[in-house]
Amino acid sequence: MKHWRIEDVAWDRFVAGQADPAIVPLVKAAAMVERNGIDYAIYLHNVFRDDPDFGGAVDTWALEEVQHGDTLGRWAMLADPSWDYAAAFARFRAGYHIPLDAETSVRGSRTGELIARCMVEIGTSSYYTALGEATGEPVLKEICRLIAADELRHFKLFYDHMRRWLARERIGLLRRLRIAAGRIGESEDDELAYAWHCANEPAGLPYARPRCAAAYMGRAMSFYRFHHIERSMGMVFKAVGLPPRGWLSGASARLAWRLVRHRQRRFARQTS
Ligand SMILES: [Fe+2]
Ligand SMILES: [Fe+2]
Q: How far apart are CA 25 and CA 41, in angstroms?
């Protein structure tokens, strides 16, 4: 069962003047990726076809992700009445596909698949927390709070199932670390960049990943603060099986923070 419904949001509190023009295009792009959660559910059902416990949880998870998309899409249409969420999503869906017919995880094991899902949920929970803290628009603030709480629950869901699969598959720490780092690195791949393109660029402009990734990441990263990275790093450590609050986690967070700032500046230079 979902923890909240789209009608629970106090939409009448929307204040147009407080919808930050730097945040609106990010919300549009995020709506695309969230709405596509249903495809991931099909893929996860294939990969975990002999695990009914997980299958049941995936259906609720996918409904929540779709609701995230619909809620963000609705907010973006309030902030920009000329924007068409359904049309933008149809464009995204026509051009972006995940391997729905895969029978085994693209991560090489079920544990690996679940670690990768943990990384995505860490990313989304920290992203919506950061956007929610940055915006002054009351409805978006509420939406971000609701979604970030869902993403944190999703992390726990995938983490618990991952621990169960790890006990069976016993993949080593180094492999778990490699999968986690690999999935984090994919945030600059096609999915988000293409979502940016479909949500924000005119139909006549051909898609170019470097341009769209820089446009998206340069803006998105500007909303992160050190405490978001520090918390995320603790969750990454927990997911791979390392102490979430030790010196190594702290040092990694400081390094990651420098990397985020460096990349944000680089992306911003590319788009200016
Ligand atoms: Fe989500
Ligand atoms: Fe999620």
A: 26
219 band by pLDDT with thresholds 50, 70 and 90: very high
Closest ligand, as measured to the CA of 154: 2
Q: How much is the pTM?
A: 0.96
Q: Copy the structure tokens of residue 64.
A: 């929540």
Gap between the Cα atoms of 227 and 6, Å rounded: 29
Q: 68 alpha carbon to ligand 1 midpoint, in Å?
A: 5
Ion ligand 2 neighbours, Cβ < 5 Å: 121, 151, 154
So what's the pLDDT on residue 103?
84
**Whether the Cβ atoms of residue 31 and residue 138 lie closer than 8 Å to each other:** no
Distance 223 CA to ligand 2 centre (A): 19
How far, in Å, is the centroid of ligand 1 from the Cα of 62? Answer: 9
Residue 150 Cα, ligand 1 centroid: separation in angstroms? 7
Residue 187 has pLDDT above 90, yes or no: no
Domain 18-216 is in which class?
mainly alpha
238 Cβ neighbours under 8 A, 6+ residues apart: 159, 244
SS3 42: helix
